[in-house]
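Comment thread on ticket #2218

A.B. wrote:
> Attaching the input chain for the structure job we discussed in standup.
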Amino acid sequence: MYDLQIYEVPGLPVPFESFVNALTPTQRRALDAANRVVLAALGKDVCGTEFGKALGRGLYELRLRQNADDILARYGRPRVRIGAKEPGRILLREYFYDYGSNKILILSGYDKGKHTSAAYEQKQIAKARKYLAEFRRRP
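C.D. wrote:
> Ran it. Output below, let me know if you need it in another format.
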């Protein structure tokens, strides 16, 4: 299992928390399930599945299109269903870095369903690369 850590700089807003706080409850549950069940188990090997993509220079993307129940069912885990099937389309991206001994640093993410332009996506990738470069400069 990989240890999932969140990128932060003391005194500044945490990019990942800002992303998560803007999500709907359905999206948050799906992202949590993907992180706990898929990313924590596979690390960067998630790129060998529909859930991941290598972006180069150590940056990876978690690609999420499924709700929490679908993710949990696919991996044989108990569902977290709260009432009827959860509504809403899910299309999320999360950027991460695989480092050290089984550690994942979650850098940032965005709602691709809400921000569909290629230009917006490139800006988000550039931000994630900036966060990664800052992290790598740390002693």
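A.B. wrote:
> Thanks. Noting for the ticket: The radius of gyration is 15 Å.
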